[in-house]
Amino acid sequence: MRKISIAGTGCCLLDYLYTGIDFKSPEFSRYLSKKEGDGGLSPGRLVFTDDLEKFSGKKFENLIKEIIGDRQPDDLNLGGPSIVALIHTAQLLRNKARVRFYGTVGNDPAGEKIIAIIKKTPVRINNLKIVNLPSSTTNVLSDRAFQDGQGERTFIHNIGSSWEIYPDQLNERFFKSDITVFGGTALVPNLHNGIDGLLKKAKDQNSITVVNTVYDFRSEKSNPGSRWQLVKNDESFRNIDILIMDLEEALKISGTSDIKNATAFFIDRGVSSFVITNGASPVWRFSDGRLFNKLSIGQLPTSENVRTELKHNTGLAGDTTGCGDNLAGGVVASVAWQLENTKPGKLDLNEACAWGITSGGFACFYIGGTYIEWNRGEKFNLVKPYYELYLKQIADLI
């Protein structure tokens, strides 16, 4: 049997991870956003370095030192909604799929580090371009005690080399892949601006299209409080087979104020299936029957076993960075497995969500979004027991 081919593009960066940050401290609070899109810090959201400097009137290196002091990052990790999801997909699938990433890094030490990390994973990077801009980086500030112990992060991002990813970098092989994944394109401006055409081109080749989103600070900055532009033409929503968002992103992209109207928006626009996360709260999922079996709007809980482990085994606690990206990777991996024996239209979205939800939960057990394996199949073997327990947890719900 031939291997499934998966090609992904979008955001790839180096994360500088700082844990133990107190979002209620004076050092952090003085830089909190006052209104939408003003460039200030906001827990759970992303802000660009340039905008934060304008908001604060200070150079970033001085501002970040006020917040974190003289400490070095607790860890450096590969980040970005595209590459993190693809790595998790490839790790779960082991040698059963070819997973390729199309993107850029800078010709600098951060870029070298990014490449070195990806080479420790099963993802293929023949189509990773090195450009003469600083590599994309994000300072991730994590407060584990925030929201009554649920934890939250704040992201300060420098776009850098992501300015140099263009639609024409995606070759014919990309669009002929069984599954094409567009991850966090809001942080990759030139791809994001052309995503309508990219989705159509992929669907013209009968590729299954997956879009996993990220907070779109550029849209929020240009039109504070207005609907975000994921696609330029609403007809393009029909070319998305799986749309994965968190609740805030779903509300912003739909321009609605509650989950009922948001889900109605995506259904009316013809998105074939979607998954909407909300931190540790239940996940919404829907399928119109084109890719997965038809499912009306419903919810699935997060993993009880993951929550129990985090509560009672503090040695496992990492942070929530990459939970959503790993959830997306788990969904894609499940789709690839199901395609081996099942035709589109008959796939099981609950099964895909089960792998996604347990994958997202497992990401809380280590710092950062990317898990580096010592041996092939290691992460699969670690996640699988939680997946099996989760199936028992939801047996009466599906």
Q: Notable features of this structure?
A:
398 residues; alpha/beta; UDP-N-acetylmuramoyl-L-alanine:D-glutamate ligase; nine-stranded mixed β-sheet; five-stranded mixed β-sheet; 14 strands; globular
Describe the structure.
- The strands form two sheets. A nine-stranded mixed sheet has the order 6-5-1-9-10-11-12-13-14, sandwiched between helices.
- Helix 14 (323-339) runs antiparallel to helix 15 (349-362).
- The protein has one domain: UDP-N-acetylmuramoyl-L-alanine:D-glutamate ligase, CATH 3.40.1190.20.
- With 398 residues, it is of the alpha/beta class.
- The two termini are 31 Å apart.
- It is built from 16 helices and 14 strands.
As a whole number of angstroms, the C-alpha radius of gyration is 20 Å
Mean pLDDT: 93
- DSSP strand content: 15-25%
Distance between the termini: 31 Å
Number of domains: 1
SSE order, as H and E? Answer: EEHEHHEHEHEEHEHEHHEHEHHEEEHHHH
Q: Helix fraction?
A: 25-40%
The CATH homology group name: Ribokinase
Q: Which strand order do you get reading across the main beta sheet? A: 6-5-1-9-10-11-12-13-14
Largest sheet: 9 strands, mixed
Number of strands: 14
Uncertain runs are: none
Say what the CATH topology is.
UDP-N-acetylmuramoyl-L-alanine:D-glutamate ligase
CATH architecture: 3-Layer(aba) Sandwich
Dominant shape: globular
CATH class: Alpha Beta
Kindly name the structural category.
Answer: alpha/beta
* Tally of DSSP helical segments: 16
Summarize the structure.
This protein has 398 residues and is an alpha/beta fold. The chain has helices at 26-29, 49-56, 60-68, 81-93, 109-118, 146-149, 172-175, 189-193, 195-204, 217-222, 247-254, 259-268, 304-312, 323-339, 349-362, 378-393, and strands at residues 4-10, 13-18, 46-48, 75-79, 97-106, 124-131, 137-143, 152-158, 179-183, 208-212, 242-246, 273-278, 281-287, 295-300.
